[in-house]
């Protein structure tokens, strides 16, 4: 049997990219969990922040996008390792705060519980803006700066929002029917499913309908999220 070493895990990551813990054990000659973790600690690695941390990959800063995230299909990794730490960093570093929906779209997982927990622990704070909650830096001066920038963006976008609000009943019906057939679809997915519709349906219209009827969580366990 090949002598066990951290290099075996590095080689596995290079060839497979994303692996499970049993894959790591097999690479080390069917090592025990304790032995596998001992060698794994000698390697720069990440566990997925979704799928209950089932997947492992080698930590490579070059893979991260501008948000410090990296995905392989529906498996997601963060430079912060955990979803909670990722949320707190994103809020702290943001220019104009984040809404729950924005974070959910970015991270592609549910974030409501962790956001509320971070607020209760006073690690971040939230303020109502234009009918939704905005999550902000816990430092009062930094948070106020984020809040002001968001308010400016909302005010600047108001004219285009008014123009989009004129979506007619036919478009609304098409979007609702699509969600009935494809529960849990997001605006971009609805757009893809309605491609070729005449007249064309714009993404801004779909987003407006989602917001107007609170459709973000339709078909998902637990119903709408109102945090």
Summary, kept brief:
This protein is of the alpha+beta class and 227 residues long. It contains ten helices and eight strands.
Give your account of this protein's structure.
Helix 9 (187-193) crosses helix 10. The longest helix has 25 residues, at 140-164. This protein has a 3-stranded antiparallel β-sheet with strand order 1-3-2. Strands 6-8-7 form a 3-stranded antiparallel β-sheet, with helices on both faces. It is α+β, with helices and mostly antiparallel strands and 227 residues long. The chain folds into 3 domains: 6-78; 83-158, Arc Repressor Mutant, subunit A (Orthogonal Bundle), CATH 1.10.10; 169-213. It starts with 5 loop residues before the first helix and ends in a 14-residue tail after the last helix. Mean pLDDT is 88; it is low at 221-227. It is globular, with a radius of gyration of 22 Å. The chain has helices spanning 6-16, 21-27, 33-40, 83-93, 100-107, 112-120, 140-164, 169-181, 187-193, 203-213; strands spanning 18-20, 45-47, 55-58, 69-72, 75-78, 98-99, 124-129, 132-137. Helix content is 48%, strand content 14%.
Structural class: alpha+beta
Number of strands: 8
| First and last CA, distance | 55 Å
Coarse shape? globular
CATH third-tier fold name of the largest domain: Arc Repressor Mutant, subunit A
Give the C-alpha Rg: 22 Å
In percent terms, what proportion of residues is strand?
A: 5-15%
Overall mean pLDDT: 88
Strand order of the largest sheet: 1-3-2
Q: Main beta sheet, described?
A: 3 strands, antiparallel
**Unreliable segments of 5+ consecutive residues:** 221-227
- Overall number of structural domains: 3
